[in-house]
Amino acid sequence: MSLRLFSSLIKKNQKPICIECTHYIEYKHKNPYDEIYDKYRMGYCSRFGNQNLVTGEVEYEDALDCRKISSKCGENGVHYYPKNKYLK
């Protein structure tokens, strides 16, 4: 009952959501059984990352970190582009 009381106080914002963005890369578990135990792993942003100089592999940054830093995407989602442009 107390959970409902506090959840009614949470105000939804109108800011863009990363999982609805074309730049969002969903986190893929290496072991399928990990999905059961690790449901809260965040995805990555294809807009920000670095190339590993040894392997040549691109290492993308966490989407949540990109949203926290105002010089990247920031709280307002500066680089947000919807997956379906007719959605918004």
Q: Which keywords apply here?
A:
88 residues, alpha+beta, three-stranded antiparallel β-sheet, 18% helix, globular
Report on this model:
With about 90 residues, the protein is of the alpha+beta class. The protein has one domain (about 15-80). The protein contains three helices and three strands. The protein has a three-stranded antiparallel sheet. Strand 2 and strand 3 form a beta hairpin. The longest helix has 6 residues, at about 1-5. It starts with a helix and ends in a 20-residue tail after the last helix. The mean pLDDT is about 80.
Strand order of the largest sheet: 1-2-3
Largest sheet: 3 strands, antiparallel
Query: How many domain regions?
Result: 1
Shape label: globular
Question: What layout of secondary structure does this protein have?
Answer:
Elements: H1 2-7, E1 24-25, H2 34-37, E2 44-51, E3 58-62, H3 63-68
Antiparallel strand pairs: 1-2, 2-3
Summarize the structure.
The chain has 88 residues and is an alpha+beta fold. The chain has helices at residues 2-7, 34-37, 63-68, and strands at residues 24-25, 44-51, 58-62.
